[in-house]
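Data availability (excerpt). The following record was deposited with the supplementary files.
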Amino acid sequence: MLKSDRLLRISLHIISVLIILFLLTKIPGILAPLKAAFSLIFFPIVASLFLYYLFRPIIRKLDDWRIRRPWSILLLYAAAVGVFAGFAIWVWPILRSQFLNFSNNLPQLAQNFSTQLQMLLLKLQEQEIWGTRINDIDVGLNLPQQLSGYLENVINSISDSLTSALSVVAWIFLVVSTVPMILYFMLKDDRKGYAFLLRSAPMKYRSTFRNMAKDIDTALGGFIVGRVLLAACVGVFDLIGFLIVGVPYPLLLVLFIILTDMIPYIGVYLGAIPVVIVGFIDSPASVIWLIVVIVLGQMLRNNLLSPMIYGSALDIHPLTTVFLLLSGGAIGGFIAILIVIPSYMVVKIIVIHVYRFYRSSKLARPHTH
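Predicted structure:
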């Protein structure tokens, strides 16, 4: 009876919250300011948290060298400014030139891709199957024309997306300008923030909170640092391979590969798609060599670098990862795809620790008849 009453109360609370959220969506103008404020706050916090886990090992290493935390953070910022200045002087002009050239030439690239595809399909149609040419088999479809038209539309939509992406550059710089200040206090009050949250938790739950926070911290730190190191190493390897093969826009393609490699399991396939398309447009024969470079880079990553950096595999089933990425892409686009996996890891750890606490409390409670 007690269990039924408790379940009923929990169900009523959940229903009440859902009704309130539904009613809020029906009030015009009430959620728009909240959504705008959330979007302005959300991205700087996520970016600062990402950089916090990326730079925290360096700061703690400087702590071991008896360098005071504010000075170590300023030293890290100075090094970051130096790296950014080197990027702006040597890398950015090349990257900008490749990006503008790629954006301006997209319509011509689409036409070249259509021409190359039609030539390839025409050659295939000249082949014979059981003594009959493929071209003589009537399937009621004009495959070359339909495929080339479809892919041309896809590339043109990419061109429109690149044009619209340039319009949000000012907003990105506005958001990113707040990240160094947030990151400074995150690094400065590193363990103080954790100690404050631990003291704020009720004594009954402190042990559970301590273990849960430790597991979340370890999971996020290992995931972020590991993915960045692996993506950077694979990106350098692929860049060398692309320069040897001679594919156009090598730096731009490698930047896209590094970004998509942050996505587990399917990131490598997403990053390979534009490489194969650009290589096919330039020279169909070079596609094989580009695929060889990408495969060798992934073999280096999975067999040598990943065991050294991670030590163990990501504790998420590949099928679960696919469902999470599809859901994240449908809800929030590419940004959601990047954060859905670490968010799932955090929620999973919280659920596990809450369940363990509930089970231990239930077992410790004396049985009453």
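Summary of structural features: Residues 318-364 form the longest helix (47 residues).
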